[in-house]
Every structure is written in structure tokens, then in C-alpha cells.
Design a protein that fits this description.
The chain is of the alpha/beta class. The protein has two domains: about 325 residues, TIM Barrel, CATH 3.20.20; about 60 residues, no CATH class. The chain is about 45% helix and about 10% strand. The protein contains 16 helices and ten strands. The strands form two sheets. The chain has an eight-stranded parallel sheet. A two-stranded antiparallel sheet has the order 5-7. Strand 9, helix 10 and strand 10 form a beta-alpha-beta unit. The protein is globular. It starts with 17 loop residues before the first strand and ends in a 5-residue tail after the last helix. The relative contact order is 0.10. Bound molecules: D-gluconic acid (GCO) and manganese (II) ion (2 copies). The site of D-gluconic acid has 9 residues, from strand 4. D-gluconic acid (GCO) binds next to strand 4.
């Protein structure tokens, strides 16, 4: 596209609500087998570069910004400088989170540790991280319990793990109310890594767990593409369930192949079809409202990249999201697609199975006769539907 003749419709801008964690673009490329391949980037530099790339927000763990154990004076100086940079660049901090995994004290869990002193320290550290996030303007605090799990599973009853996790969250929602903060919690599930097995392994597990909390209203989920995919599950179905429950408070966008370690790849770089269906869901489809929260990329550049490659990666995440949104609109407007999707449902049957229990309706339902063989006969043309989607994705339609 010639920038002189026409504006690039896929160029990211503030209005798109894209955000990145300091730890994502700041990832230096270290892995379990090799050292960092890139230098550590200063958080203020990250904010400036993200703003240049068209991002709207930057998220952080407490220790991405303020080193573990920093003095109060150092903390205040670092935070003041960071706030000035944010203001200068017109960037916001929509979400903050707590690092409850790096320090060895959390080697056997934070909120779920068998040692009550570790649990107490974890809750105390989280309160400080909440204060920091709120000071920077965050409206969401994410809880990713990376160390909340086991290898030697006999070490604790999993029910104790759940009970302790619940106790911690109950204290923390109370703390937020007590402070008068305008903040919600978003719980992020992951099946494994770094622990052999992590408690509350999927978004579905989280959705149920939330209903057992004292202040369920304040708590929702932060599903991540990579995490549900690691478990071999449909991410789109998990996110849809969270939306149905009114609990999609935040989202971690990236890409992942099934059966691998947590790859945290550039959004849309694997399983384009799931990415397409996800964007279509988030943008609002079939008469359902769109997700209007932050579009956060929890991903990092390949270890092969230098800093220039990191910004290529960041722009790539955002562009792919916007391209998929445009593709999704074109797909849903395509008359050939509409013809398949807009098939008339039998109004009378619809009435019989909607609206819950009603004694009279149930009597009618029992009395009605069906012809299963006739119902089974027509082909549903899903082959055509899926091929149309493929062709939209490949850019040859719409
Ligand atoms: C991971 C997680 C983390 C969390 C982050 C915010 O697998 O490492 O996805 O990136 O999202 O710690 O809580
Ligand atoms: Mn992850
Ligand atoms: Mn994540």
C-alpha cells in the first residue's frame, strides 16, 4: 500500500485499545537452555516505543517496574519517572499484576504454599502491587498462579490449595473495597508450566471457582490463547463461555501450537482459523455485543530477533488483529455465507424448547411427533461454509 495515496487501514492506533506487558516486548529471549539474546529494555523506553507503534496501553508486574526489595524512596522515584513518561506519550496502564513466581520463596506456591508465612508474604506483596497498579491508573488486576501447583502431588490436598487460593482472594477483594479502589480482578488459568500441574487449569475451572468467592462480582477471567491451546481445548469456546457469564474482564492474545511448551507467539502466527474465529467473537457477531476491554498481547518476539525485530513483532500482533477483524466483517457480510447461516428455524419447535420449564409447554412437547429420518436427511453445507471462511482468510474473497 502506498502511504502517499491511501491511508493504511490496518495501522494500529490508540482507538484500537491494544496493550502489551512490559514483560512481553521486554522479553530478552532467555529460555531454559540458553541465555538472553537481547539486552533488557528500560520500561520508559518500552513505553515510548509502544506509543510509536500505535499501542494504547502498557501492563506490568510490580517487579517489571520496581525491582524486588527496592526501598520506598527508589520505588517512588521509579514510579514518578514512569508516570511522567506515560503522560508524555499519552499511554495508559489498563492492567497490573503481581510477580508471585520469580523469587525462590514462591518455589512451592504463593497463595497455596504449605507455609503460611509464604502465603502471608504473597498476600502482602499483592496488596502493594495493587496499590502500585491503582496509582498508575489500572482498572484490572490479573492473577496468574504460575507456581500454584505441584510435581509431587502428595505434598498437599488439592482442596487445601483451592481453599487457600480462595482465602487469599477473599482478603484481597475486601482490601480493594476497603480502599475504595475502582478495580476488578481477572484470574488467568494455565494447565502447567512452570509447575508440573497448576491448580485451576482452564478458564472453565476458573469460572466455577469465582462463584465460590465472597465477592464473585468483582472477579472475572483473563483467558490466554496459549494456555487453553496447551490443554488442547478450543480457546474460542472458553472465551465465549466467559462472555456468556459476563466474566471476560481481560484477555491475553498470542499464538500456540498444541502439545508444546508455552510458546507465547505473535498473535495470529499459528492456527489462523482459531485466531479469526476469536477476533470475530470479540468484535461482536450474531447479535452479541463486542468485548470492550483491553486487547492485550501476552506474547514475545522469537529469540532470533534483535530489538528492531521486537517492534516488528509488536506491530505484527496489532496488524493481524485488525486484518482479521476486517476479514471477519467481510465473511459475515458475504451473501453466500449468509445464505448458509440464515436458515429459518422452525418457530413452533423453537417455542417448545425456549423459556425454561412451563408445564403446559412441556405437555405440548411430549405430545408432538417428530420424523427423525426426515430431520437427518438434509446436508448442512458446512463444507461450503468452512471453505468460504478459508477463502476469506486467504484473501481471495471480499
Ligand atoms: C505465562 C503467563 C504470564 C501472565 C502474566 C500476568 O504463561 O507466563 O501468561 O505471562 O499472563 O504473568 O499475570
Ligand atoms: Mn502464557
Ligand atoms: Mn498470560
Amino acid at each position: 500500500m502506498d502511504p502517499k495515496t491511501s491511508a493504511d487501514p490496518f495501522r494500529p492506533s490508540r482507538a484500537d485499545r491494544f496493550s502489551f506487558g512490559l514483560w512481553t516486548v521486554g522479553n530478552p529471549g532467555r529460555d531454559p537452555f540458553g541465555e538472553a539474546t537481547r539486552a533488557r529494555l528500560d520500561p520508559n523506553h518500552i513505553v515510548r516505543k509502544l506509543a510509536e507503534c500505535g499501542a494504547w496501553g502498557v501492563n506490568l508486574h510490580d517487579n517489571d517496574l520496581v525491582p524486588f526489595g527496592a526501598s520506598a524512596t527508589d520505588r517512588d522515584r521509579i514510579v514518578a519517572e514512569f508516570k511522567a513518561t506515560l503522560e508524555d506519550c499519552g499511554m495508559v496502564v489498563p492492567m497490573a499484576t503481581t510477580n508471585l513466581f520469580t523469587h525462590p520463596v514462591f518455589k512451592d506456591g504463593a497463595f497455596t504454599s504449605n507455609d503460611a508465612r509464604v502465603r502471608a508474604f504473597a498476600v502482602q506483596k499483592t496488596m502493594a502491587a495493587i496499590d502500585l497498579g491503582v496509582e498508575l491508573g489500572a482498572r484490572t488486576h490479573v492473577f496468574w498462579g504460575g507456581r500454584e501447583g505441584t510435581e509431587a502431588d502428595a505434598c498437599r490436598d488439592p482442596r487445601d490449595g483451592l481453599k487457600r487460593f480462595r482465602d487469599a482472594l477473599n482478603i484481597l477483594t475486601g482490601y480493594v473495597r476497603d480502599q475504595g479502589y475502582d478495580l476488578r480482578f481477572a484470574l488467568e488459568a494455565k494447565p502447567n508450566e512452570p509447575r508440573g500441574d497448576i491448580y485451576l487449569s482452564t478458564t472453565g475451572h476458573m469460572l466455577h471457582f469465582i462463584e465460590t468467592l465472597d465477592d464473585a462480582e468483582m472477579v472475572g477471567v483473563n483467558p490466554e490463547v496459549a494456555h487453553e491451546t496447551m490443554a488442547g481445548l478450543s480457546f474460542v469456546h472458553g472465551v465465549a463461555q466467559a462472555m456468556d457469564a459476563g466474566k471476560l474482564f481481560h484477555i491475553d492474545l498470542n499464538a500456540q501450537r498444541i502439545g508444546r511448551y508455552d510458546q507465547d507467539l505473535r498473535f495470529g502466527s499459528e492456527d489462523m482459523k482459531q485466531a479469526f474465529l476469536l477476533v470475530r467473537l470479540l468484535e461482536g457477531v450474531n447479535g452479541y455485543a463486542a468485548y470492550d476491554g483491553p486487547l492485550h498481547f501476552d506474547a514475545h518476539a522469537y529469540r532470533t530477533e534483535d530489538e528492531a525485530g521486537v517492534w516488528e513483532f509488536a506491530v505484527g500482533c496489532m496488524r493481524t488483529y485488525k486484518i482479521l477483524a476486517a476479514r471477519a466483517r467481510a465473511f459475515d457480510a458475504d451473501p453466500d455465507v449468509r445464505e448458509i447461516l440464515d436458515t429459518e428455524s422452525d418457530a413452533e419447535a423453537e417455542r417448545l424448547v425456549s423459556g425454561g420449564f412451563d408445564a403446559e409447554r412441556v405437555r405440548e412437547l411430549r405430545a408432538r411427533t417428530f420424523d427423525p429420518d426426515a430431520l437427518a436427511a438434509p446436508g448442512l453445507r458446512y463444507e461450503r461454509l468452512d471453505q468460504l471462511m478459508t477463502e476469506h482468510l486467504l484473501g481471495v474473497r471480499g
